[in-house]
UniProtKB/TrEMBL annotation:
This is 18S rRNA factor 2. It comes from Crucibulum laeve. GO terms for molecular function: RNA binding. InterPro entries: ABT1/Esf2, ABT1/ESF2_RRM, Nucleotide-bd_a/b_plait_sf, RBD_domain_sf. The keyword Nucleus applies.
Amino acid sequence: MDPEGFAGPSKKIVTPLTPEALAAFKAAQDRAGVIYISRIPPGMRPAKVRHLMSAYGEIGRVYLQQEDAKRAYLRRKYTSTKKAHFTEGWVEFKDKKIARSVAEMLNAQPIGGKKGTRWRDDVWTMKYLPRFKWNMLTEQVAHEAAIHSAKLRVELSQSKSEQQEYLKNVELARVLDKRAARKKEKGEEMVMRPNDRRKRPMEEGEGYQRKKHKPQEGDEAVPLNSVLDSVF
């Protein structure tokens, strides 16, 4: 998860859990509830979201999703705002009942605050996520990061192959130009002639088959006896 968008408890040394502590942790996870905020007001950071939500109940973890890199680049280029902006977020309450009531109470309501504050007139857009646990969010973020890395590898591979093809064409053009210059120095012109391939003439009688002579109806058959009489 992006550390810029994470506002969780401070880092602690991880120690193995005892069976009792593990059972208590699972029970706490079952009691917890998560609300989804579909729009984060411009300039609001995770610490501010935690501060505002903690007024309604005990907060566990808060995660805000940063805007995509292309949008952030254009914003920094054409505006004076250089800080990171966030587009959506998730807030974990220790009690799912409180999370449900907070989402129902604050959805489509102005953020409020003192007069003149930055987000006084902005509106909350949030929803309670039933049967949604924090580990589902971490798995989703990891899956999206893996997809992004795979797409990036494919784009880099494609760009590398295109670059190699371009360099190959440049080298070929350089060789041809050098050859043409050498021909020009010798007073010859480099003419590209098509391959002059003539078909071999068909040999006489090739493909010709002699037909056997068949006797016609008008031909007279010579008697065998007359031939023998003339011989003997």
